[in-house]
Amino acid sequence: MNSIHPSPGEPGFGTGASLFIDPRTCIDCGACADICPVDAAQPVEKASAEDVERNAAYFAGQEPLDATDLDSWEAPTYQVWGGGPRRVLVVGAGPAGMYATRELLLRTTARVTLVDRLEQVGGLVRYGVAPDHPSTKQIMQTFERILQHERVRWLPGTDARELPDGFDAVVHAVGARRSRRLGIAGEDAACTAEDFVAWYNGRPGAVRPVELVGPRAVIVGNGNVALDVARILLSDEARLRDMDVSSDVRRVLAAGGVKEVVLLGRRGPGEAAYTDSALKELLAAAGDRVELRHHARPTAWTSEGLALDDGTTIAAGNLFTAIGFEGTPIDGLPFDPERGIVPNVRGAVVGRPGHYVAGWIKRGARGGIGVNKACAQETVMALVSSSRAPASPGS
Fold first, then answer.
1. Helix 371-384 crosses helix 95-107 at what angle (to 10 degrees)?
2. Which domains are delineated in the chain?
3. Is residue 338 packed enough to be buried (19+ CB in 10 Å), middle (13-18) or exposed (0-12)?
4. How far is Cα 36 from Cα 4, in angstroms, rounded to an integer?
5. What DSSP string runs through 119-148?
6. Which pLDDT belongs to residue 79?
7. Is the dihedral of CA 332, 333, 338, 341 positive or negative?
8. Is this prediction's pTM over 0.85?
9. Is residue 358 within 8 Å of 100, Cβ to Cβ?
């Protein structure tokens, strides 16, 4: 999650006696504590007061996180929501919804009804994180504990529009589910990263979206998801056996015959959205079979491969698109189609008292899992500071 600093390339890396964990992006998964050979990484409740103060001082005064796409970020200064228990509906049990629920439980006396269209919590963590990154999925343990709280009512497999009215507030944390399109001829025959990732991660209802045709695949996109897809496609049978995927997925990937991947960026390397660690991991796993190509503009996907605007064609059997996601309209709420978000001020929906947003539907499909923590905190701060008339989920 890039939460531990100073990291390679930052001032002080390798020269100091301490490392510090950024509370704005830490997802509380506990992976650092599990692997630390000297037990230096500890939950705040077990750490000494001196270490907690030193950690806070390290990040004091730093610029807001660019990835949050927020005007500013402030440490939470909540007052408990008085007047007895109130009813809050949280729609979506992905990272944003779970962090929003956690903040409501920590900072208010509200009773939270949590719903999701799927049967399990986790959203992007459960069905979006690559299967060879099991440590990232450890946050699921925290999410599962949240469900056990006495003030949480968990309703899986539920459409929020089916619920009765009478909630004091509704937090919409539905994410951004729709893949962005390239807008080129033949794109309908390509495979979106969303569909491919959902299949190999076993999301309910997902089916194999494409027949793999080696030896080369082209992936348009320069984010971490594009690199995940490349790494999975190029994994040998030994790596696949170590992954948390079904035997059918392992069989299809092993038999797919993809031996080379071209990662195509429409802009330059300076605008690439993947992290350094993700690129290093890909190159370490299959560096000699990955081609990074930049400033390339696709014009059509044909039986011969991917045609570019310079008149050349990259011969390939499969085209994957991983150029990001966009939100879709929510019944009864305003929507900005250009940004793919619900218009809001620090999470409070514009013109709809009692309604709030968190996560990608709030700020756009940017930022990793950890960014949702700060995003949810800001939304709950807006919620508890407002006195709203009861809201209904579909109104």
1. 50
2. 4-62 (no CATH), 87-177+327-384 (3.40.50.720), 179-324 (3.50.50.60)
3. exposed
4. 12
5. SSS-THHHHHS-TT-TTGGGHHHHHHHHHT
6. 52
7. negative
8. no
9. yes
